[in-house]
Amino acid sequence: MNRRTLLESPIGPSPYARPIELYVFIDPLSEDCWSLQPLLRKLQVEYEQYFKLRIALRTPLPTMNLKCIPNNEDAKACDKTHSTFPSIAVKAAEFQGKRAGFRFLSKMLEYSFLKSRNVSSFSVLIEIATKINLDVDEFISDFSSQNVLRSLQVDLYLAKEMEVDKAPTFVFFNENIEDEGLKVGGLYGYDVYERILEELVGERIIPDIPPILEDLFQRFDTLSTKEIAGIYGISESSAERELKKRLLQQHVERIPFQDMTLWRKKQR
């Protein structure tokens, strides 16, 4: 699992030194990957200065008849479903930028595990792309392109080379490209990932001060009360009080579900 065999070209320069490369392999249809999201967001907020994140898909892709993929002409009215569509959609969204890919994945997980929508349906994926303000025509065009399928094949190749056999799996690499990656399959407590980062960095790691709440909502489309409390190190009741203040000021919107509450920036 040596990194030299995985990268065809050197990684471009970073605006600041981040000594760790972190690959996170996910399956968009796995409930564990929905549970992973709050942990990964907190890790990004606190320690992103130490690592470069790459989300890779670890989804079984059966031999697929390409005719099942909607073409540009009838795509917006398409009601086709396929088990590979969620993975293809994440890659198509990434073609509009890394952050667009993260936002699409987050919204897709929300649709699947909170709203119980069928994210294997192309029409639902179009709805998600519209909801997060992607260029829908570009999304449709990329969805049916060979480039997206090649991007998926790269992820599958990486999973094979890194011997990743389940999702979610974290694979950490340090600055020494001769060293083996450190693979962590499954989900563990947040402190486990902190300790791994610190061990690989080789010195004490200092968490960043989280941004103000308004900036947090600029980065993440929706956040739960529990997530916000965890990021700011406060109780859920304190987080809810602060959010209710912003609700009264019409800065945020509340989205209740059966067993949790999501918040998002007020839609103007």
TrEMBL record:
<dbReference type="Pfam" id="PF13743">
    <property type="entry name" value="Thioredoxin_5"/>
</dbReference>
<comment type="function">
    <text>Adapter protein required for efficient degradation of Spx by ClpXP under non-stress conditions. Interaction with Spx stabilizes Spx and exposes the C-terminus of Spx for recognition and proteolysis by ClpXP.</text>
</comment>
<protein>
    <recommendedName>
        <fullName>ClpXP adapter protein SpxH</fullName>
    </recommendedName>
</protein>
<keyword id="KW-0963">Cytoplasm</keyword>
<keyword id="KW-0413">Isomerase</keyword>
<dbReference type="InterPro" id="IPR036249">
    <property type="entry name" value="Thioredoxin-like_sf"/>
</dbReference>
<comment type="similarity">
    <text>Belongs to the SpxH family.</text>
</comment>
<comment type="subunit">
    <text>Interacts with Spx.</text>
</comment>
<dbReference type="GO" id="GO:0016853">
    <property type="term" value="F:isomerase activity"/>
</dbReference>
<dbReference type="InterPro" id="IPR046404">
    <property type="entry name" value="Adapter_SpxH"/>
</dbReference>
<dbReference type="GO" id="GO:0005737">
    <property type="term" value="C:cytoplasm"/>
</dbReference>
